[in-house]
Amino acid sequence: MQFLDDSLHPENQDKVVITVAPYGPEWAPEDFPEDVPVTMQEQIQKAVDCYEAGATVLHLHVRELDGKGSKRLSKFNELIAGVRARVPDMIIQVGGSISFAPEDDGQAAKWLSDDTRHMLADLDPKPDQVTVAINTTQMNIMELLYPEYLEGTSLASPMMHAAYSEMTVPAGPAWVEEHLRRLHASGIQPHFQLTGMHALETLDRLVRRGVYRGPLNLTWIGIGGGFDGPNPFNFMDFIRRAPDGACITAESLLKNVLPFNMMAMAMGFHPRCGIEDTLIGQHGQRMTSVQQIAQCVRVARELGREVASGREAREIYKIGVQYKDAEETLRMNGMAPNRQPGQKNVPFRT
């Protein structure tokens, strides 16, 4: 990605698109009862509250009435319909894991089967986005969840700790290609959740082969445990290697969330917040999803960047846009064209 002398000036940057992940499927309701919605109406209202606070992208998971993460697509349909009715301009981004919480103590935390996750392309009403991981990866979220922050929560349980330590993200080549094909056919945009440089490089190859034909909305995830760690050099290298036309969001955990969000917004990129990423602020205090959004809004304004409305966020994300082939996808995402037979050195556009 290129930076010119005036690239850090707010007048040359997009408006800020704030993503909120307010459903926190790894937490039990009793871990933060003031901010973990359980009933369908509470879950819908949480989306409305987040939108009114300034978040225009809703990273969506669903709970059953017993507080456990739902794996029923009918519940996803119900929540999507409810959010659409209340805040129609909000971008609905379904978490592609369909909730990874273990059913009972002692079970491993795992994502659902490949076939079940493919069914996200058939949700009705359709979400705007589904998150898509690239390459199967370890996702040990416990590696950076320090004991002092877990005290008094369900994740302090040795069984739950063990379950989440062994979690993996299944995203092999055959699944990724088929999933992208189904989402494309349904007019649903993938939002790529990238765990490191290997994932960005694989995505580049998928674009060059014409497997993916659309805008590149990317989230860099610095949570450790098999993903990139929360080292600013990892983030900067990702930015340096990302295509010029990509839209980048930062995601991290706990006290790393605010620093990475500030770095992202300063450089013209976008933040993600919410209780799925952190329950606490920089002083260890409990912090709701709405409070975290308000914090992002304050930082954005201090940087001179305006916060995008729902409609503006849709334009920035290019919701609904698809491309006809690999070459158009490369061109529209600011990537070098594919090499033609006999072509030497780096291919340039004519």
From TrEMBL:
GO MF annotation: an example: metal ion binding
Provide the cofactor list for this protein.
Answer: Zn(2+)
Q: Which UniProt keywords apply?
A: Metal-binding, Transferase, Zinc
Q: Which domain of life is it from?
A: Bacteria
Pfam families, per database record: BKACE (PF05853)
Listed InterPro entries: Aldolase_TIM, BKACE
What name does this protein carry?
Answer: 3-keto-5-aminohexanoate cleavage protein
Classification lineage? Bacteria, Pseudomonadati, Pseudomonadota, Betaproteobacteria, Burkholderiales
